[in-house]
Amino acid sequence: MEHALSPTTLAELRRPRPYPAVSVLTPTHRREPDNAQDPVRLRNAVAEAKKQLEADPAVTRDRRADVSRQLDRALAEVDLAHTEDGLVIFAAPGEHQVWSLARSVPERVVLSDTFLTRNLVSAQAAERPFWVLSVSPHRVTLWSGGTDRVTEESTAGFPMTRPVENFDPERQMQIGDTPSAYRDERTRGFLREADIAMGKILREDPRPLYVTGEQAALSLLDEAGAVAATAVHVPHGGLAHGTRDAVWQAVHPVVEAEARRSADGVARELDTARGRRAFAAGVDEVWRSAREGRVRLLAVEENYQVTMRDDRGDHLVPAESGETGAREDIVDEIVEQCLETGAEVRFLPDGTLDDADGIAGVLRY
């Protein structure tokens, strides 16, 4: 199952497909007893997708059989023992994907010529993804981080390694010490290569960067390259050879502290915007501002969800789940729309935006 949504992956998912491109969404649960319902709901959702394929006159027999096979293969790949809060299956002629999301999704089946990506985009934004670069004189590893885990990445040459130099007894006799790896020009060149590779990744997939290592390694990386200058330093050695649990334990408190500091900054920005009348609050007002491309900064409480329907195209009004025209993922729609118009999107702890009904924006004009 897929977890990490890079800009390149998102662009690939959004590319037009031969009809039908099927999107199947279903909420899932991490713990008992709620997760007991997940297998049934998932099978029912896939069955509903096949039913819609059968009833659609625009779908040829061969296409129907192909996409049905893809749905079956996707269903076989789902590991319900390791799901999070939402599951998305994409199936089209000749391909399928399964995505596990750390954010709930509405139960839905959509047939179109593109996959429905708004829920993936919103879940990615809510997860506050980040990079961790763990450095040492002979090994540099890259980790992708999210809400509750880090995962080692094998990309752009990472993990990088170089041979450990043999001990030189003659040098110790002549100089009287064991040479430090951090004074070696080859170490500087090695870390410079890691810096260049990390810079390329940040250009393609910008995220906050945390760099772990001994203080000497962090200082040398600062001198040898550019990425460490804007990164958060975590002076903790041994993680270039460490496990993902060890890396998570080292960076998690620092990530949480940065999140609190950033949330305080967002709150100050919202207060300033309110004072100069560049402020939108509530789902209807923010939705209209997002459609017009006016939102510069969107703030949403982490678990804020609401069901609305479009009232004649210019306002949203409350709706019940399952009601005709109901939009159960309107918050995810707003998040995706804001990201597409270049806005910054921040998810804040529940209760932070009580005076704005859970969602607010700083406007460009």
Structural class: alpha+beta
**Series of H and E elements:** HEHHEEEHEEEEHHEHEHEHEEEEHEE
| Counted beta strands | 17
Query: Radius of gyration, rounded?
Result: 24 Å
Mean pLDDT over all positions: 91
Taken from the alpha-carbon principal axes, the silhouette is globular
Main sheet? Answer: 6 strands, mixed
Q: Which range does the strand content fall in?
A: 15-25%
Helix percent reads 25-40%
Distance between the termini: 41 Å
Number of helical segments? 10
The low-pLDDT segments are none
Outline the secondary-structure elements:
Blueprint: H1 7-14, E1 21-27, H2 38-55, H3 61-77, E2 86-92, E3 95-101, E4 108-112, H4 118-127, E5 130-135, E6 139-145, E7 150-153, E8 160-161, H5 169-175, H6 185-204, E9 209-213, H7 215-224, E10 232-235, H8 244-275, E11 279-281, H9 283-291, E12 295-301, E13 308-311, E14 315-318, E15 326-327, H10 330-340, E16 344-348, E17 359-363
Parallel strand pairs: 5-9, 9-10, 12-16
Antiparallel strand pairs: 1-2, 1-4, 2-3, 5-6, 6-7, 6-8, 11-17, 12-17, 13-14, 13-15
Q: Can you put this structure into words, describing what you see?
A:
This protein is an alpha+beta fold and 365 residues long. The protein contains ten helices and 17 strands. It is 39% helix and 23% strand. It starts with 6 loop residues before the first helix and ends with a strand. It is globular, with a radius of gyration of 24 Å. The strands form four sheets. Strands 5, 6, 7, 8, 9 and 10 form a six-stranded mixed sheet that branches. A four-stranded antiparallel sheet has the order 3-2-1-4, with helices on both faces. Strands 11-17-12-16 form a four-stranded mixed sheet, with helices on both faces.
